Amino acid sequence: MSSSRRRLSRRSSSFPPTSATLRKRLVALDQRRAFLYAEMADIRTQLAEVAQSRAELVAQLAQLTYPILTLPTELTSIIFEFYADMMNDAYSSFKGGPFVLGQVCRRWRDIALESSKLWRNVRVETGACEGKEQLLDLWFRRASKTLLRVQLSTEDPSLYALVAGHAEKFEAITCDLPPPNDCTLASIAGRVPNLRRLDLYLAEIHTPLTVFADAPALRELNVHFAPFGSLEQLVLPWTDLTSASFDKEVPNLLHIVSRMPNLETLKLPAAKYILPPKIIELPNLTTLHCSTRNSQLAGPFNLKFLSHLQCPAIEVLEVHFRSTKHVPALRNFIQSTPLNALRDVTLSQLSGYDVVQLLSAPAATAVERLVVYEMSDQSAFFYALAGVGSAEPGPPLLPALETLIVESPPLELTSSAILAMLDARCNDSALLNVNHNNTGSGPIKALTPDPDPEDECEVSEVAPNPSPVKHPRPALLREFELKPGLVLPYRDEVLPQAVFAHHVQSVIGPRGCRVDVLAPRLARIESDVGAGTQTEPTLYSLAEQDDGDLSY
Known about the structure:
There is one protein chain. By secondary structure, this protein is α/β, with parallel strands linked by helices. Among the domains are: 22-64; 120-241. Helices cover 30% and strands 18% of the residues. The protein has helices spanning 2-13, 19-63, 73-86, 97-101, 106-114, 132-143, 157-164, 253-257, 327-336, 352-358, 378-386, 415-425, 428-431, 497-508; strands spanning 121-125, 148-153, 170-177, 197-202, 220-225, 243-246, 265-268, 280-281, 287-290, 309-310, 316-320, 344-348, 369-373, 403-407, 444-448, 458-462, 479-483, 514-524, 532-540. The strands form three sheets. The protein has a 15-stranded mixed sheet with strand order 1-2-3-4-5-6-7-9-11-12-13-14-17-18-19. It has a two-stranded parallel ribbon with strand order 8-10. A two-stranded antiparallel sheet has the order 15-16. Strand 13 (369-373), helix 11 (378-386) and strand 14 form a beta-alpha-beta unit. The longest helix has 45 residues, at 19-63. It is extended.
């Protein structure tokens, strides 16, 4: 019975639909279409309203002028020039400042194309760039008559030849000497009247190089030595140079320095050189950098050559030590400088006691800025600045000091010493008692060197001095920065940062000194081992906001 019903159902479903069924379906589709047409009409109305609102906004925006576009063209050009100079090394050849600025907007593009100084930095490198000759020629044409700063780092002889064609406009050039194979700079000899700066990557030279011998405007020389690089065969207008920098020690370097009597700035490695028979007089030298810091080519550290330099006009001195056994050589050099000569001193890898001994010389009494890297036994230095620890009353240490930066020391952070220094050097009333606070009835602390040079200074007690001698008050400290690099656990006597910040705020008050203290945030975990863990360093400031740049 059930099987017969299934057969009947299959037969009936195979019949075509009737006309009534089709009409019903057609009516349903017409109703659906009418509904959609109604929705489309409503959407068109909404789209028209949106289009009208958008057109109104576009018209309003067209009437607005962005603040950056209100600047005069001359001022915008100056800003662009600073950007192009600053970012010159951030881009590869022919992709520098002018092209970046020209992609921002039409007005910036017009300014970039019209400002010839934006095109003065010419960087030519080896790379797969099509049409380099055409791009370089375009670059020179955009620069017009502006003096050029050229960086040559290519082995393409055709590019060397194209660059050499504009030698009369060279203001600065960076290149290899001798040039790479098949490349030459011989054609620019005698054609660089405007060249003021020369950066050389110097390799081994066997014959005299006179390419830059006739450069009447040359004043600055920076030499980067390749292995076996030498200076003997390099011919330059040595007596005209006012600034020289050498990144690697060569035995006869002092002999070369003796040819430059008009130097104002000298940077050379602190190394062992062949000492000249006579003292080298540098009457105009104001800045001296002696360092092997961050140099992969550095040899043994040595400062004995300082005894053969006479620098009566020295103002800025920077020495990065590798061994404290050469402290006496630097002390003798500082003591040989005229009274009140030094203004800016940078030292590294010394103890606080060594820094005090170096800067106690009369020549350091005019130092206004001091930067010390990786200083151990900081308390000795801070107490000395505070006027605490002198066995006999004397003139204050660094009385003209206004800026003090202590960076990357082993983190001892003896808060009491820092507070004493800030109280003495940032407080008008405290300055009256600097180096006279040993007139009481009790003993005071004095810093004495330990016989073992490996140990830090120790604190001893001396008898009070009943008859103090008055000395001129030191200047108010205007800026103090402490930036520990190596994060170590705190000692028991060190105050927590929050307490330390509160103490500094109460000690200094509104006295015009900016204090930045970069200290690690220490989180201690109670465990069976009792180990302490540390998080990343955080900047503790002395106000409600933690911005690290505060002024009182």
